[in-house]
Amino acid sequence: MEIHVFAAVLFAAMLHAGWNTLVKAGSDKLVSTTLVASGGGLIALPLIFIAPLPAIESWPYLLASAIIHIGYFTAIVLLYRNADLSVAYPVTRGSAPLLATIIAAFSLEEIPTGLALAGAISLSCGILWLATDGIRKGGLDRTTLFVALINAGIIALYTVVDGVGGRLSQHSVSYNIWLEFLDGIFFVPLALFMRGRSLIRPLVTQWKIALLGGGAAFASYGIAIWAMTQAPIGHVAAVRESSVFFATLFGAILLGEKFGRSRYVAAAFVAVGLAALRFG
Description:
The protein has 280 residues and is an all-alpha fold. It has one domain. The chain has helices spanning 3-25, 29-47, 59-82, 85-107, 114-129, 132-136, 142-169, 172-195, 200-205, 207-227, 233-240, 243-254, 262-279. Helix 1 packs across helix 2, helix 4 runs antiparallel to helix 12 and helix 5 (114-129) runs parallel beside helix 11 (233-240). The longest helix is centred in the middle third of the chain and has 28 residues, at 142-169.
């Protein structure tokens, strides 16, 4: 992976951890998640009239991803109601890189090198280790753990779908613009159906939070889709999940969650994994 792609994906990882921290910090997780989805859609709305249309071959992937993202946003609401950010986030994101690498290997024949595979395993182990303190202390119940693992599968699935769709689109920026727009169009009505008209007021009054969170999500995933046109999908997925390290720091510093000693060891695994992926 080229250094500029690697650096861009790391930046995207920080942005992703940032908007997830925003959702976790909100008192109502459905409201917070809907704000992010609607904010991304609002940012994308004027851009769809400016940017070129993605190539027709990419539209089945674009629509499939938007549908898959409904499950992703729904799982986020359920996760952050019952678990710390520094617990739920690592379990969810930590399982995804290997799954995405495996899916890409079988469906796209993107076989990772030995060093890259070792890096993905090291990164995943370090990320999952970051969650062990919280799990041992009862910060994650069985039901929430199940939701986290299901969401990991969802993440791996849409990562591969968007990796292929972004490549076929011939314009990864336009692909992301339309995806963010469709995410808002699909998820916001579902949220309104679940909560009713009481959801409208916070969506209107908290528009600044919507644009902040939605902007971070928009930029983060836009970078990821572009990166998957420049490097193997599994490599990008694994580096992107270094967002767990940022989420753990944000959870400790901004949300007051405890940072156990073992997490420093886990951080070393993350660093080794990132280095292996960079040079593999």
